[in-house]
């Protein structure tokens, strides 16, 4: 089965062709991602209206490039899979409406895909792992711990009660004058800093459950920066290092709790996904937690950790393999669409 995926939920305009083989393995045939970082960097964050317009301007070209790179035409495609949510509604409307138009024009059926399901199932495309596994999704928009029991069978163990992990990195970077998006810049500066210099809080650490909170940490960084200002280069490095350690301590504590909460489940792996998982110090900490629990740590390659359309095509293919019934064209775009509200393929919604 060959599926073309379309992703426009945030600030990446993406299209990809993915093949799912009869044995359940998958292959990425093409994967085109156009980042809008330059359009948004002047504003220090994603501006929804600018994102939607940028998707309109480039999506048709990106879809053509994905087909071209795969050396196929729409005639060779079995299904069109497009992100219908959650995300910024303007961008979602652009992607989903374009997908519907393509579907009408080509006669190829359309499947509306949940963006979070794309992140949740990527590890099966890259590493062919079996269910169930524990997913830590840490990106600019999402921070969740989810027990992935099957396609459409997600049990959310924890989520953020305020900011996403990536947002905390980005806001810290902005405050320290490191630019946008700041996660990787915080990491670089942290490598030259003293993580013990500033005593910062670890929100929710030691508490029951697997929820996250980063707002208090962000405020503490701001206050520490105000106290230490004007900031020398070393101050910036030390603040970045102290923040990063605090954030990692929180992520580690919550992940350990999620594993404890699932003591009765035989997970096959700990899976980390999302842009923040690119952070090497986080990767090292997660590798240790996984090893302590006798699990492999599976981290999809960087290009598939961040937003992309291969994961959307793949999530579509996983669903369609279990339920190939035709779909109607009335699926709406939706800003909110929690992962654990999804149902198993073929089950009545
Ligand atoms: O998954 P992603 O590419 O996009 C979505 O948010 O969906 O994640 C982007 C986020 C940004 O907040 C960025 O600052 C953060 O991931 N990030 C990092 C690193 N690289 C990217 N955070 C910490 N350390 C990094 N090395
Ligand atoms: Zn995402």
Task: Label this structure with key terms.
binds zinc ion, 2 domains, Nucleotidyltransferase, domain 5, binds 5'-O-[(R)-(carboxyoxy)(hydroxy)phosphoryl]adenosine, alpha/beta, 349 residues, five-stranded mixed sheet, 11 helices, 10 strands, globular, single chain
Task: Give the helices and strands as they follow along the chain.
Answer: EEEHHEHEHEEEHHHHEHEHH
Any idea of the CATH topology of the largest domain?
Nucleotidyltransferase, domain 5
Could you give a short account of the major beta sheet? 5 strands, mixed
Termini, distance in Å? 24 Å
What's the CATH superfamily of the largest domain, by name? ATPase, nucleotide binding domain
SS-derived structural category: alpha/beta
Radius of gyration from the CA trace?
20 Å
Order of strands, main sheet, comes to: 3-2-1-4-5
CATH C-level label of the largest domain: Alpha Beta
Uncertain residue segments: none
Helical residues, percent: 40-55%
Distinct ligands, ions and cofactors found in the model: 5'-O-[(R)-(carboxyoxy)(hydroxy)phosphoryl]adenosine, zinc ion
Number of domains: 2
Shape: globular
Question: Based on DSSP secondary structure assignment, what is the total number of beta strands?
Answer: 10
CATH architectural label of the largest domain: 2-Layer Sandwich
Average pLDDT, rounded to a whole number, is 95
Strand residues, percent: 15-25%
């Amino acid at each position: 089965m060959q599926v073309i995926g379309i992703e426009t939920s945030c600030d990446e305009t993406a299209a990809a062709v993915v093949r799912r083989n009869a044995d359940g393995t998958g292959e990425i045939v093409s994967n085109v991602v156009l980042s809008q970082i330059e359009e948004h960097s002047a504003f220090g964050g994603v501006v929804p209206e600018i994102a939607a317009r940028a998707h309109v301007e480039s999506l048709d070209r990106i879809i053509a490039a994905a087909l071209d790179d795969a050396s196929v035409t729409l005639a060779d495609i079995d299904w069109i899979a497009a992100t219908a949510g959650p995300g910024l509604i303007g961008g979602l409307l652009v992607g989903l409406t374009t997908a519907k138009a393509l579907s009408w024009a080509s006669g190829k059926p359309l499947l509306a895909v949940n963006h979070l399901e794309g992140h949740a199932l990527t590890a099966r495309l890259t590493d062919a792992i079996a269910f169930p596994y524990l997913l830590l999704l840490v990106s600019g928009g999402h921070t969740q711990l989810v027990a992935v029991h099957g396609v459409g069978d997600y049990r959310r163990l924890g989520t953020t009660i305020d900011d996403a992990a990536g947002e905390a990195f980005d806001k810290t970077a902005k405050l320290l004058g490191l630019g946008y998006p700041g996660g990787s810049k915080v990491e670089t500066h942290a490598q030259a800093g003293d993580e013990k210099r500033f005593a910062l809080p670890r929100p929710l650490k030691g508490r029951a459950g697997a929820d996250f909170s980063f707002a208090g940490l962000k405020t503490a960084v701001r206050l520490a920066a105000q106290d230490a200002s004007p900031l020398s280069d070393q101050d910036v490095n030390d603040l970045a290092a102290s923040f990063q350690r605090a954030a990692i301590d929180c992520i580690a504590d919550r992940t350990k709790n999620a594993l404890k909460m699932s003591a009765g489940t035989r997970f096959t792996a700990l899976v980390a996904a999302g842009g923040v998982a690119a952070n090497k110090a986080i990767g090292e900490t997660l590798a240790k937690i996984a090893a302590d629990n006798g699990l492999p740590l599976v981290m999809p390659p960087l290009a598939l950790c961040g937003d992309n359309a291969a994961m959307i095509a793949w999530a579509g293919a996983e669903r369609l393999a279990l339920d190939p019934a035709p779909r109607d064209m009335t699926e709406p775009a939706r800003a909110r669409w929690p992962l654990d509200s999804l149902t198993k393929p073929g089950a009545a919604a």
